[in-house]
Amino acid sequence: MFREFDAGATGLDTAEALQRLERYGPNRLPEAPPRSPLMRLLAQFHNVLIYVLLVAALIAGAMGHWVDTIVILGVVLVNAVIGFVQEGKAEDALRAIRNMLSSQAMVLRDGGHVSVSAEELVPGDIVLLQSGDKVPADLRLLRAKGLQIQEAVLTGESVAVEKGTDPVTEDAALGDRLCMAYSGTLVTHGQASGIVVATGAATEIGRISGLVSQVETLTTPLLRQMAVFSRRLTGTVLVLALAMLIFGVLVRGFSTAEMFMTVVGLAVAAIPEGLPAILTVTLAIGVTRLAGRNAIIRRLPVVETLGSVSVICSDKTGTLTRNEMTVQNIATVEGLYTVEGSGYIPRGGFLLEDQSVEADQAPLLMQAIRAALLCNDATLEQKADDWRVHGDPMEGALVVLAVKAALEPKMERQQHPRTDLIPFESEHKFMATLHHAHDGSAIIYLKGAPEQILARCAKVQGAAGEELPMDAERWRQRVEDLASQGQRVLAVACKPAQAHQQELDFNDVEEGLVLLGLFGLIDPPRTEAIEAVAECRTAGIRVKMITGDHAGTARAIAAQLNLENSAEAITGHDLDRMDDAALSARAREVDVYARVSPEHKLRLVTLLQAQGAIVAMTGDGVNDAPALKRADVGIAMGHKGTEAAKEASEMVIADDNFATIVHAVEQGRTVYDNLKKAIVFLLPINGGEALSIMIAVLFGFTLPITPVQILWVNMVSSVALAMALAFEATEPETMRRPPRPANEAMLSGFLLWRIALVSALMAAGVFGIFGWASTHGSTLEESRTYAVNTLVAMEVFYLFSVRYLRAPSFKFDQLFNSRAVLIAVAVAVTLQLFFTYGPVMERFFDTRPVDFVHGVEIIALGMALFMILELEKLALRKWRRKHGGSRCSPGRSEAKS
Ligand code: ATP
Q1: Same domain for 516 and 536?
Q2: 3-class secondary-structure state, position 108
Q3: CATH number for the domain including 861?
Q4: How far apart are CA 552 and CA 482, in angstroms?
Q5: What is the pLDDT of residues 44-103, one digit of tens each?
Q6: Is residue 765 helix, strand or coil?
Q7: Residue 733 sits in which domain range?
Q8: pTM for the full model?
Q9: Can you tell me which atom of ligand 1 is nearest the CA of 375?
Q10: pLDDT digit string, tens, across residues 482-516
Q11: Name one GO biological process term (predicted).
């Protein structure tokens, strides 16, 4: 095998690996080429309304209205370009987050273990696998220990298969090639190493899937719902328009040509053409902002779900705590040792019951520390003054302890080489190793959760090398004492083995062990997690800690974090004894769950969901996948998490920090608010315009705004203004209101009322100024120009109003605190000035310059709309206060004051 790939048992060297990378190319599946820009631009025209407009342009041309034809085509083109640019931005956002999730592989290079990007693997590399990893390339296994791999992506079989190193016949079917690990499959159990035999497109998965299509559409249930709404509205409007055409020609006696353009105007007026694009951009910006705060979205719909999360179930270690462990106490039969120093700097002395001791003068202490060092996979590295741990932080802390005790890790490992191991898995909660010393003696070391270790120990190691009888109760009490101080407790034991024993299995560590001592490690809560827990409380979100750690430790940390209920804890053992009804009742009250296994997590999520909670759940291990999938928001840890957990989750937290989850919820609420604001902003503009046209036709009035003018307002001004809402920052009150009920309709009674009110006010403004001007000496063209400008002025003022749906918008600092809004207004006003005073526009849109007095009137009407809405907000707030602002009051979720 090595010869075939010109590789050695110590792996490739970096130079060779680089050369091979050139030769074989990166280890990634070839992507389908992205859509060409031309295709993307053309796709912008694939829309019912655009078809209607193109037909209208054609008919207008046929009827000799060339100017209208040019205007319609021009506006359609501008709209397509805006859509094209926005879509490009949205796709860029998605691509960027995809790149943040590239996976890593542990490989042997230059004789040492290094973690490299999976894309850098080349044939001949030796890759190490452990449970939870996604196999990064096709591997021929060289060593396998309890290895099980789930190959569903290749074979469709979801039960994991056991793998080994024995060769199989060449014609074995894919599922029977037990000495191979294939790219894209998941390691569910055990450890292994293998040599890379194929990468990228040459792998089995590469051959099956051919090109991977990386195109993911930027959508969520709400966006889909709005798209359906838009389509239905379009259909209804088209039918209505036809009815109006008939009504206008037959009843009102308008000419068909005149009516045709009116009807096109109605269609343009009533259809919210800009809405889907704005919503997509809002979502893309939300996803980008989340990524900027370390929350990487894997499945887009979760952006919406985040906003309604009502329970967060979080791991403790590393998420709520810092995962920077330090051994603080060691308990042996001699008493309780205290270790000085903190962090990973290996400096600090030892005290026994307050008396300073030299570690090398205390043989039992040294024996326990040596066991903890050898039954350990972590390494400590010094770079200048910086000490860094590679591997599990808790194991790292034990290495630091060993160095404090003047042990030399490298030398110890050479003198007591490891022959075999049982790796740590959270189901059995211990790790065991078999060592042979040079004198031929063999020993087994075991370290793990005290319950697991104490149960296996018949004796305790005495200070002078003698073995004492085990007083299990006393040791249990010592565990409780350390745990109640928030320390994470580990027990360490040993057992002599036969010199010829080369393999270690579970039977060897079932019983007959000798307890060496207990280690108490501190892992303080993250400061930002304490703040985030407090924030959850005001935001109506319950935080539950679900940990594999001891109940006493978990309760102590919960108290430091100020969880709502840190006094009680349910253990995995209790969970097993409770039926669903009992657990469901307790789960409402209890916030600390200790010594739980992944199956318990699944049960808890299911029960909490049955109570109507929207549950976010964190996870990192391979067995957490079902609970992560089941949760409404499955969250995997970026550093600590296995690939299996990441694959099962909706979101990955790059910094493993609880505070990031809470930020993500806040951002989720913001995105939802902004989507809502965009809808509440755009719909009344369509409503106002459609109302104006319908009233004119029904009552036989002259149209106050021409169809092409409406086209201008909707496809240029409105889009420019609404875009600002996508950038709206989080409102200060966002995390001071309860979560949005998951089944809440987007358009609540309050929002429907607001849309109807603003529609009516806009129609009134347009008709008001048009009627007043045309009866007071203005020409038809002038009156229409005033009407269009009034509509846009109202839009501008409405934009300021809609930024705060319920709270007053009339606060100086709030009016001008958004750069996006100010830019959007500047753009809209400039365009409007050009529209009104530009000689070209006069030809195309039949506009006339607006004089000063009318200009003031127009702005006054815009302001009037703003003031009326402020009064309405005030009245509603008063009403709410009087009626207690009950949960069911309209628009509760936008509650502000
Ligand atoms: P959380 O679920 O909050 O991350 P946790 O890290 O304590 O908590 P597990 O990783 O399942 O959960 O660990 C459970 C227990 O197993 C620990 O409390 C510890 O006693 C023991 N343990 C953890 N890591 C190791 C290890 N590398 N070797 C031996 N025992 C370990």
Answers
A1: no
A2: strand
A3: 1.20.1110.10
A4: 8
A5: 887 777 887 888 888 888 888 888 888 888 888 887 887 788 777 777 776 777 677 667
A6: helix
A7: 221-290+664-895
A8: 0.83
A9: 28
A10: 999 999 999 999 999 998 999 999 999 999 999 99
A11: sodium ion export across plasma membrane
